[in-house]
Design goal:
Number of helices: 16
Strand order of the largest sheet: 6-5-15-16-17-14-18
Organism: Nocardia goodfellowii
Protein name: Flavin-dependent dehydrogenase
Pfam families: FAD_binding_3
Strand content: 15-25%
InterPro entries: FAD-bd, FAD/NAD-bd_sf, Geranylgeranyl_reductase
């Protein structure tokens, strides 16, 4: 083993959440070292759509220009089709951004890593973290293996585990079991197509047919990302399984198939199955879990990158001034964790509803019908995905009452009443989830002894 190195903070995983945290820390003058097993640019399984709120997160990181240079078209319209209705809406601006972007991960992640390096963060690639270093019950560093097979010990007051759903850091601190979780009713398959329809390069589109859902998101290099989410199958994927499932779903989604007419597929079909959305405990003595390592939502609402950028950055900004005061650091970490959980719970629950792989319910169909006629309602529905309107604001008691009355007038009252009963059961279940989340994260920490100044600030910044 080589000599022990020191830093102000260690980030395990240098993609969206990790780069965002590293940028914030480096800009605050902290010595931050990020470790990743990949060599950038590097791909990863991801549907990579950024709604306007996600695009807006690139600006405070200083990465907006680098990402725009990748050439993804500005998606200025959202389109949602289902049950014979088609809802089209522009995007409300978020911090001046009124468009979405679909940027493939090799370019996006490389742009973020480059921004982190420019800010002063050190990024070490092709390394594997195997152990955490502990000191009196606190995480105080990591041991990792570099490309040459050398084990290096790196110490810092804070280890940030931004290493994804299968997080090594979460496992090593004992936080890998979630306190809230919901298996998805959908599998996910996606592929890229050489886009043959220049007239739709500004539209982010989604269609539903029966229990299937499919999307077409134009992205960089003249491609369109087409994703399908059919009902999950309880079988282990075998050779050719993803291709078969993808093509079968396209057959059941005629509007998506029509969008891809004249397009040529590029590369293989990729798959994400066995999807589970969750919240994990995401902070503790000397550690934190931003990004998918601490909280993950089904890709059906395309929220992961936005949340990774936002809460990675806010973590870095919050802890930078207090890294060498353990008691204050732990309180700040807890406040950050509580904030993220509170701000993300509504979208988590909305996402889980869309991930159930059910045919559209009567009230949902009535919402589409109304939104097709009412531009303000269509805009409000789109704003949910940018987090400027909440699901509860969209589906207020007044609106649900009106949708119910209109659906009843159109016939099938038994189905409408059954749907209304489901909504009430869902609301009760979501209330219980909120209680569970509130109880899982303590409001206050027990007092911890303050360390000496010498112990608190051992890192040289030369």
């Amino acid at each position: 083993m080589s000599a022990v190195e020191t830093a102000d903070a260690i980030v395990v995983g240098a993609r969206c959440a990790g780069s965002a945290a590293a940028i914030a820390l480096a800009r605050a003058g902290r010595r931050v070292i990020a470790l990743d097993s990949a060599h950038f640019p590097s791909d990863t399984v991801s549907t990579h759509l950024l709604w306007p709120a996600g695009v807006a997160e690139l600006r405070p990181l200083g990465a907006a220009a680098a990402v725009e240079q990748l050439g993804a078209p500005h998606l200025t319209l959202a389109r949602a089709g289902g049950s014979g209705f088609c809802v089209t809406s522009p995007f409300s601006p978020v911090d001046g951004i009124d468009y979405a972007l679909c940027v493939r991960r090799p370019g996006l992640d490389a742009a973020l890593v480059g921004t982190a390096r420019s800010a002063g963060a050190e990024i070490r690639e092709r390394v594997k973290v195997g152990e955490l270093v502990w000191d009196s019950g606190r995480v105080s560093g990591v041991r990792y293996t570099d490309r040459a097979g050398t084990t290096i010990e790196l110490r810092a007051p804070l280890v940030i585990g931004a290493d994804g759903r299968r997080s090594t850091v979460a496992r090593l601190v004992g936080a890998d079991r979630p306190y809230l979780s919901q298996p998805s009713g959908r599998d996910c398959y996606f592929a890229y197509w050489r886009d043959g329809d220049s007239a739709q390069r500004h539209i982010a589109a989604q269609w539903r047919a029966g229990s299937d859902l499919g999307t077409a998101f134009p992205c960089d290099d003249g491609l369109v990302l087409s994703l399908v989410q059919p009902p999950a199958e309880p079988v282990q994927p075998g050779p050719g399984h993803a291709e078969t499932r993808y093509l079968a779903a396209l057959d059941r989604l005629p509007d998506l198939a029509a969008r891809l007419a004249g397009c040529t597929r590029v590369g293989r079909v990729r798959a994400a199955t066995g999807i589970v959305s969750y919240f994990r405990r995401s902070s503790g003595p000397g550690w934190a879990l931003p990004g998918d390592s601490g909280h993950f939502k089904d890709p059906v609402t395309a929220q992961g990158i936005r949340d990774a950028l936002r809460y990675g950055r806010r973590l870095g900004e919050a802890v930078a001034p207090v890294l060498h005061d353990p008691a204050v650091l732990d309180r700040v970490l807890l406040e950050w964790e509580r904030e993220r959980a509170a701000e993300c719970l509504d979208m988590y629950q909305w996402t889980n509803r869309l991930a159930r792989a059910e045919p559209m319910r009567p009230l949902e169909i009535e919402l589409y019908r109304a939104a097709q006629r009412q531009a303000a309602l269509a805009l409000a529905a789109t704003e949910i995905f940018s987090r400027t309107t909440t699901p509860k604001q969209l589906l207020s008691p007044t609106r649900v009452t009106a949708l119910t009355a209109n659906a009843m007038l159109r016939g099938a009252p038994a189905a409408v009443l059954w749907n209304l009963g489901q909504e009430l059961r869902d609301a009760a279940a979501e209330w219980l989830q909120a209680r569970t989340a509130a109880q899982a994260i303590p409001r206050h920490l027990a007092p911890t002894p303050r360390q000496s100044t010498q112990d608190r600030d051992p890192v040289s910044r030369s």
